[in-house]
Design goal:
mainly alpha; elongated
Length: 94
């Protein structure tokens, strides 16, 4: 495999870990009535590749699951990212 493929995998692991951490932090902050992570920041991290980790974490810790923006937006972001990755593998792999 190409080095770019491995770098993409490492990047996706890191950005998803970041997504998990900020989602858990936001939930903890909400419970303690402290400073919260902006919704825009959560969505940007999701759009940068952290959508899978964020969506799974949101369901596990029951955070933002009543917000339509997150329950529809993050899966849409995920499928858009997945489409790009599949296209990259298909066209770059040839």
């Amino acid at each position: 495999m190409n080095i770019l493929f491995y770098l993409l995998i490492i990047y996706l692991i890191v950005i998803n870990l970041i997504a998990v951490v900020i989602t858990v932090y936001d939930k903890h902050s909400a419970k303690k009535h402290k400073w919260r992570v902006k919704e825009r920041t959560l969505l940007i991290v999701s759009a940068l590749g952290g959508s899978a980790g964020m969506y799974i974490t949101m369901h596990i810790i029951r955070h933002k699951t009543k917000h339509l923006k997150f329950m529809l937006g993050i899966p849409l972001i995920f499928f858009a990212e997945l489409s790009v990755i599949i296209a990259m593998v298909y066209f770059y792999g040839k």
